[in-house]
Amino acid sequence: MLSVELHAHSAASYDGRDSVDMLLERAAAVGLDALAVTDHDEVSANDTLVERAPEYGLVGIPGIEISSAAGHVLGLNVREAVEPGLPFSETLARIRDQGGIAVVPHPFQEMRSGVLANIEKAELRDADAVEVYNSRLVTGYSNRQARRFAERYDIPITAGSDAHVSDMVGRAVTLVDADEPTAESICEAVADGRTTLQTRRTPWLVSARQAYGNTRRRIRLAIDGLFS
Fold first, then answer.
1. Which of 218, 144, 150 is nearest to 190 (CA)?
2. Which DSSP string do the residues of 7-72 spell out, in sequence order?
3. Which GO terms describe its molecular function (predicted)?
4. Is 211 among the domain residues?
């Protein structure tokens, strides 16, 4: 079983703070075997991730968190960006065209771009896996909804720390029964449902600091855009 972080953001993401090396250092320190970087609509960190992960004894899984027309979708084991704003089904198809898998994060958290704000539950069943534990929770109710949905329809499950700072990498871990320690094998095992979860809540104070930092970065980017 490989211990894998499937949902983390680097400084290449508009809402991330830390470098890929800081994420990798933290992943190694907490005993992970693999790390996916899933920046928002951005893949520029993936080459660095894949190149440097072995230096930390880790497997680097290139990824992206895509802002589809329905909401957020994780593409795992993809190298090329998928354009935002596409329909949910088209977003899944673009991920699979690259040989990746489509995992839907926090689908029931509509205030955080969960897809069920804009699609029917039947469409969610087309995903390769559903994130049923996102460590950035308030009450945990939406996580429980996601788990019940996945169990009802026998959909593979994942967990994700949704880390925007390196300290939060490894809060929610997916244990993957992969045949070998490669990104391809890990993603194949996830889509096959060979996963169990180890989860912890992100402390509220940390989530608040992340939200504050995200807001500052968005304002800065908006101002930069006005004068560029």
1. 150
2. -B--TTSTT--S-HHHHHHHHHHTT-SEEEE--BT--TTHHHHHHHGGGGT-EEEEEEEEE-SSSE
3. 5'-3' DNA exonuclease activity; 5'-3' RNA exonuclease activity
4. no
The total number of residues shown for the chain amounts to: 228
Instruction: Measure the CA–CA gap between 18 and 224, rounded to whole angstroms.
Output: 20
What is the mean pLDDT of the segment spanning 30-39? 98
Look at the chain and report how many structural domains it folds into: 1
pTM of the full predicted structure? Answer: 0.90
* pLDDT one-digit tens code per residue, 162-208: 999 999 999 999 999 999 999 999 999 999 999 999 987 766 566 65
Q: Which residue segment(s) compose the domain that 26 sits in?
A: 2-201
Q: Are 225 and 197 spatial neighbours (Cβ–Cβ below 8 Å)?
A: no
